[in-house]
Known about the structure:
Layout: H1 3-9, H2 11-14, H3 29-35, H4 40-51, H5 60-82, H6 88-94, H7 99-109, H8 116-125, E1 130-134, E2 141-142, H9 147-151, H10 155-160, E3 166-167, H11 169-178, E4 184-193, H12 196-209, E5 219-222, H13 234-244, E6 252-257, H14 260-268, E7 272-275
Parallel strand pairs: 1-4, 1-6, 4-5, 6-7
Antiparallel strand pairs: 2-3
Helix pairs in contact: 4-5, 7-8, 13-14
Amino acid sequence: MNTTDRRTDDRRVNDRQVGGTHYRSTYQHWDVATDTLMRHLEGAATKYLARFGNKVGEPASKDLEKAAHYIEKLIDVAKFNLDFEPLSVIQVRAEIDPKPYMDRFIMGLTGAPAAEDNVAVLRTLGSWSTFVVCDIDNCLVDSLHRTSHYFNGDREKYMAAAKDDRVIPQGQFIYRAFYDRPGIVQLFVTSRGDSPVYRELTLRQLHDFVGPKVTTNQLLMRPPELYGLEKMSDEAYKQWAVTNAGYDLNDVWMAFDDRKPVVDMWRARGVVCYHTAVDAY
Ligand SMILES: [Mg+2]
């Protein structure tokens, strides 16, 4: 918009100042702010910078200090954003007393002693949790090089070949954004079969590709009795896995998967789910 035109249109507004005349100028700060689409913090900081020394009876340093205060806040916000915390819902939730939610978690876990470690993980994080359910194969790593083993019935070879998986950079980038974040617990829910060897292999991948603080409690794998699609579909298994670990499915906030039936399941539950690749295995 042409600023001169707008100032003409708004003359009556621009000609008034509530509480004085000392901030009058030909190009007023609020027009600068409007024309350059400033947001609140930039606007406030530059407003004080623009007018310091103009207010009679007040030291110039006072406005400069106010400007500095807003700039300080801007720096905080910039650091916060650069540090991959894009989740305003988490900020809002951070102000909510976590105790009732923790109580709900613990009550939900009564009678499930195996899940005590999971409670410990939540406590370590110091807040109630929002789960981000992360699939591994074809989300974080490319497993297509070994898919044929699975469908040829050689499940051992399929799992063992995981040691040669290459990381998917985009998957790594997004999973790292959620890694070790207060208020978020990443659950790595995979249809890989659970065994000491393959749990260690998978955990090593998570440590290498996501971060060293991923715990074994965050890794949910198919137990031997449920290993294989013929035993349970992926979409049923993933819900079962979360519940069986003592977590509440309603606390799943976001999910990533490459398998369309799983994506559809999460979405049907109201969970935002990102479909990472063509349905594969
Ligand atoms: Mg997958």
